[in-house]
């Protein structure tokens, strides 16, 4: 059975050593294993337990509790690893234990409580069998440990004609992760695009309608897929069934492997899908989009 059907979201539930219950999108999970022996490197980040060797490849092991501000396990043997693969990287999250896989609707996932702040490390909250489950913002965890992702300056990357193609074009950006939102926004602004950013699909939908009515339509939407209440797939569906904004070019920008999402993205009417985060690849995707819109080769 597919892990994503309609607006269903499959979550792997797990606990930290404090007993805190968290969930992570199952599509981000590669495997679950006992914690193997670790090599502790000098000058490692304090939230990194060490490096494991998994089938001949090095795997960075993160003490997830410490990474989100809690006390970690004293013993690496006490617990297991959730091996995640997203945003072009693979890492192991050291946790107390995993419990089970559950399905919920993205419509039942609510944004983090007001006042949760930038240290919340969650993208949403839902309820499973009467228990509150917080959904981990793994992108924020990784960014706090290794912020030097592909955010290279784009000076000199574009030819003059490409700069002219992008200059001042109106783009709407939506992402519920503040880290991902800021990364993408930095690239769009470097490229000279006229950007507006929002944190939810509902807000994006409203902005698209409002700007269209004001005769200042957005030409292109860059949207995350995983978002509370309405995900990127359902956002695209809503856009395509709304006559006034149906022609909006939609680029779905996801931390998941884009090959897993391309078929579904196309089926709901998205124009393109791209895996986060590469400033060069994002720039190329934007150039392709505007060339297509302008009828250029």
Attribute tags:
alpha/beta, OB fold (Dihydrolipoamide Acetyltransferase, E2P), Rossmann fold, five-stranded mixed beta sheet, disordered N terminus, Sig_transdc_resp-reg_receiver, Two-component system, chemotaxis family, response regulator CheV
Characterize the structure shown.
The protein has 297 residues and is of the alpha/beta class. The protein folds into two domains: 8-145, OB fold (Dihydrolipoamide Acetyltransferase, E2P), CATH 2.40.50; 160-294, Response regulator (Rossmann fold). It has eight helices and 15 strands. The chain has helices spanning 64-67, 138-145, 160-166, 178-190, 201-213, 232-240, 258-268, 279-294; strands spanning 8-15, 21-25, 29-34, 48-54, 57-63, 80-86, 89-95, 97-105, 122-128, 131-136, 170-174, 194-198, 220-223, 249-254, 272-275. The strands form three sheets. It has a five-stranded mixed beta sheet with strand order 8-1-2-10-9, with no helix packed on it. Helix 5 (201-213) runs parallel beside helix 6. The radius of gyration is 20 Å and the shape is globular. Residues 1-6 have low confidence and may be disordered.
Quick synopsis:
This protein has 297 residues and is an alpha/beta fold. It contains 8 helices and 15 strands.
């Amino acid at each position: 059975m597919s892990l994503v059907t309609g607006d269903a979201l499959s979550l792997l539930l797990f606990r930290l050593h404090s007993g805190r219950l968290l969930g992570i999108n199952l599509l981000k999970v590669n495997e679950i294993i006992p914690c193997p022996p670790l090599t502790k490197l000098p000058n490692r980040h304090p939230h990194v337990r060490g490096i494991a060797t998994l089938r001949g490849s090095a795997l960075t092991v993160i003490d997830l509790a410490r990474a989100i501000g809690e006390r970690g396990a004293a013993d690496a043997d006490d617990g297991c690893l959730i091996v995640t693969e997203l945003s072009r990287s693979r890492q192991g999250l050291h946790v107390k234990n995993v419990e089970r896989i559950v399905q919920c609707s993205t419509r039942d996932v609510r944004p983090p409580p007001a006042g949760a702040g930038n240290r919340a490390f969650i993208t949403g909250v839902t309820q499973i069998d009467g228990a509150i489950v917080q959904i981990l913002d793994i992108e924020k965890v990784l960014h706090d440990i290794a912020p030097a992702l592909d955010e290279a300056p784009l000076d000199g990357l574009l030819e003059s004609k490409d700069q002219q193609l992008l200059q001042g074009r109106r783009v709407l950006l939506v992402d519920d992760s503040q880290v991902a939102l800021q990364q993408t926004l930095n690239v769009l602004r470097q490229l000279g695009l006229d950007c507006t950013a929002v944190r939810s699909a509902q807000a994006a939908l409203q902005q698209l309608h409002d700007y269209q009515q004001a005769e200042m339509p957005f030409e292109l939407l860059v949207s995350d897929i995983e978002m509370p209440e309405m995900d990127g797939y359902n956002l695209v569906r809503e856009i395509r069934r709304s006559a006034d904004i149906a022609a909006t070019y939609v680029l779905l920008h996801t931390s998941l492997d884009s090959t897993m999402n391309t078929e579904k993205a196309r089926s709901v009417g998205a124009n393109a899908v791209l895996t986060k985060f590469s400033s060069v690849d994002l720039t190329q995707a934007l150039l392709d989009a505007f060339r297509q819109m302008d009828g250029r080769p």
